[in-house]
Amino acid sequence: MKIGKIINYHRKKQQMTQEQLCDGICSISHLSKIENNSKEVNIETLNLLCMKLGISIEDEKNKVSHIKIKLQEFYDAIERLHHKKANTLYLDLTEYKEFVQYTELLYVYELYMLRYTLFLNQVDLAEKLIEKMGQNTKMFSEFELFVWNVLNAIFNHKRNNFIKSLDLLEEVKDLRKQYRDDITEYYYLKSLMHCRLGQSALAIYFGNNALEVFKKRNNIIRMLDVKTILSIHLTETGEYERAENLLKEILDDAELIQNTTIEEMAWHNLGFLYGTQNFSEKALECYYKSLALIEKYTESYYLTIGNIATHLLKLQKNEQVVNMLEQELGSFEDTTRIEYVKLRVLYFEAKNEEKALILYLVADGLPIMEKHGNRMKVYEYSERIAEYYQRQGDTLLANKYLQISLHQMKKTHNTGVLR
């Protein structure tokens, strides 16, 4: 503990000048050096200064130790996604904000507050904090640099810069073992980034590592998150039995801890698993169970509606799809939403109106997806339009939209992801 800085803090808090504090104890220059921690102070002088300030060295040491413990509990609560506990600890720690500025905990305190900002998904505020804190990185300890890179990786993930996130994590990979007990989400973040990039083998590899880490800490919620990633990519790689077993484990655990969000996601992913195997009836059963747990008119709600429509079409239940989508499409106030476009496409498919579908894609669907930067749908829709005009014998228009799809493929090759 840098006691000189603590003396400086209490002196200023009591609105005492250096001259007033050192009177009868030591010279002003001597006190100045003590406060700047540039001079070793003998215990007698220190005791006299503390006595005059009405503080105890032991109490100050205990306070710093207390804050250190609270900070670790704070980060642990965030890693466990324990919102209530994290918020309580946040409020407790804000009471020490001024005091911490005079301790060696300053940068750890600021980094953990940044983590809380990201936890609350306040991305714009986090960006400002990162810009401000970036000026002090040369003064960071090795541990603080490790945390700094991890938090920047989380920030870049929230900005959809997945490759940048992986680069930041790779920079500090040699420090992970040293600080694995303090920061447990490193492997999870690597798995998540590879998941976002569609790199199944790496998502599974780091996911298995993350699962072991969270098991040791008994972090149940994050274990379920990792199992979700694993189930998705085991499905993608054709390991259907393992994926199904994981999803059933997730459902049992979600029911046990009464977490409807995780339960809803598990039913959805189980529907995806069965759909991948062309078991449309079983897929629909899962999607309907998922839908019952989702808040209406959210992104997840419309995604599930779209999946239900897709499998009903596979079962040639077109009329049922038309009736369902007419009602859902009528609920949109903003028809430029991505979700609206996807459902509108399914609606035209259900009515077997290919020409109307292509005209819609040209006039609205494709431009909306381009505006939102949804490369996967821009690629899919431009390919579809090109194929239509090729069948119609219009090579000029066919080539125009084929070029758009090829451009998206090139972007995918450069960035590693269609999203």
UniProtKB/TrEMBL annotation:
Pfam families: HTH_3. Signal peptide: none annotated. InterPro entries: Cro/C1-type_HTH, Lambda_DNA-bd_dom_sf, TPR-like_helical_dom_sf, TPR_rpt. Keywords: TPR repeat. Residues 7-60 form the HTH cro/C1-type domain. It comes from the Bacteria. PROSITE patterns: HTH_CROC1 (PS50943), TPR (PS50005). This is HTH cro/C1-type domain-containing protein. The lineage of its organism: Bacteria, Bacillati, Bacillota, Bacilli, Bacillales.
